Amino acid sequence: SSCVLGFDLVLKMYVIETLCPLFNLSGFLQIKRGDYESEVVVFGSSAAQQKVKEMIDDLMADGSSQFRSGMKKGFLYSSGYGGSKQFPDQKCLSSNLCFLIFSILKSSDLPPLKKKFYTEAKSVAMLTTEEVDEWRKENNNIFVDDLKEEGEKRSIPNPCRTFLEAFELYPEIMDNIHRVGFTKPTPIQSQAWPVLLSGEDLIGIAQTGTGKTLAYLLPGFIHVDGQIVAERGGPGMLVLTPTRELALQIEAECSKYSYKGYKSMCIYGGGDRRGQVNVVKSGVDIVIATPGRLHDLQMNEIINLRSITYLVLDEADRMLDMGFEPQIMKILLDIRPDRQTVMTSATWPPGVRRLARSYLKDPMMVYVGTLDLAAVNTVKQTVLFVHEEEKKSYVFDFIRNMEPQDKVLIFVGKKIMADDLSSDMCLQGLIVQSLHGGHEQCDREEALKDFKDGRVRILVATDLASRGLDVFDITHIFNYDFPRNIEEYVHRVGRTGRAGRSGIAVTLVTRENWRMAPELIPILERAGQEVPEELVLMAERYEKHKREKEMYSPRGGGGGGGGGGRGRGGRDRGRNWEF
Ligand code: AMP
């Protein structure tokens, strides 16, 4: 059955240009082209069709003025998907429209979903507001909010201060926790568990090292187990994550807690595709995947994503940085809209907020102050001012002075530099590994394993290794090239000083890095580190240069990469950095 909706030209152009190629809508919406009016044919139950019609009417009422003004300025015809510069909301609107339409069409014939698995322990219920506030303050100053509108906000669950408070009803989870010997939940776990077990969507602003993986995995196990379906016909939980290394690490964590014998697997590009296909076909419960390869298997109808009811978008900011947004959108179209969704991100830039708006439903947010390096005040941070051509002698000097138990992760900007530096080291008889996205997957895994196991104590890597990698005994970070933005600096430095150990970070800064100086100073200050005089002078010189540039170029403050001055503005300079 189908119904036909009339579209005016402007909306038609918009739909054809942006929605169709992006989302391959042909199965559900057929758009017929006309000159001034176009038609959209919507398939599905009559209730679904009615709902879609209402939504499109709403959208046209909301959006058409924006499109018309766009057309007047002559923007419309040049604005495809990449035209979102002229219409900041366009991408958002398109994904929302698409998401809503699919929500209605797809939810009509799906089995019911169970999300509530939480019974608040007495000791948790008894906490007073003051006690809760005090606890949050003492635990990394953790901040929790309901993202619903003012006036509609729900009460936020009290934290579970012990494992038992969260999982008393789930003895198998408790057994596993006892087996690994953890003593208490990390702050994000304490706050995320009651929210997730209550069935709410959650955004966790936290970086690796905070215990975020278990924060979403354990409620996920309970959720998958709690569904009342005879045969799921595919995996129940999906974790999307930016890099293969992170996927493997999450999978290791997943297997460690092997709940009810659930089978988990990793799907990532570069790995043995046929092997992955065979595992999928043999049936899995939990999939941890990078978006590219998963989308490939989805397109080829090898994996069924419709059975997924618990979805995690891990390190969403990183996935966007790596350009995975189109694949993520396509993957999510196949996943039922009434699922439970968790998103983690180390930062909260506009792109991540947009993802959250489009794909999470009334989420709560838990924020563990990650970008505040005070949280990593166990790392001593040193900055050295050098010329580009002196860098090699600095790094070799550093290596000569290493103690036998030291382990250093050296960060460089480009793949070729990682190869160049590591082969120089090899030639000098040093035992070294290198890690970057240009290597075969098996080599990447071996490099990391050698470094983790201590067979190799020097790893030269691109920012592929700046996040997520959990090697607990790295003693030194050596920033051979300054990272592309200050967030990445924080992530790199956070690779050491883990689990209460102390660490040292050495950063080489050249004249070319001057735009980072104003952003580095507050990071050092907050972590109680010494701020070198030269860095202050460099920052002043840069600020002066920026002011002068703005004075001479009236548009200087606009989209030219100046603006907020944030590192992410440096995307166009991305040629200097690779993963
Ligand atoms: P993540 O932030 O998820 O990458 O976790 C970082 C490390 O902390 C992993 O090695 C975890 O196994 C470990 N971890 C997770 N939860 C806890 C906990 N409650 N207590 C101690 N360590 C933990």
Automatic annotation (TrEMBL):
Residues 162-190 form the DEAD-box RNA helicase Q domain. Residues 378-539 form the Helicase C-terminal domain. InterPro entries: DEAD/DEAH_box_helicase_dom (IPR011545), Helicase_ATP-bd (IPR014001), Helicase_C-like (IPR001650), P-loop_NTPase (IPR027417), RNA-helicase_DEAD-box_CS (IPR000629), RNA_helicase_DEAD_Q_motif (IPR014014). Pfam families: DEAD (PF00270), Helicase_C (PF00271). Its EC number is 3.6.4.13. It is an enzyme of class 3 (hydrolase). The gene is ddx43. SMART domains: DEXDc, HELICc. It catalyses: ATP + H2O = ADP + phosphate + H(+). This is RNA helicase. A motif (Q motif) lies at residues 162-190. Residues 547-579 are annotated as: Disordered. Residues 569-579 have a biased composition (Basic and acidic residues). Residues 193-366 form the Helicase ATP-binding domain. The keyword Membrane does not apply.
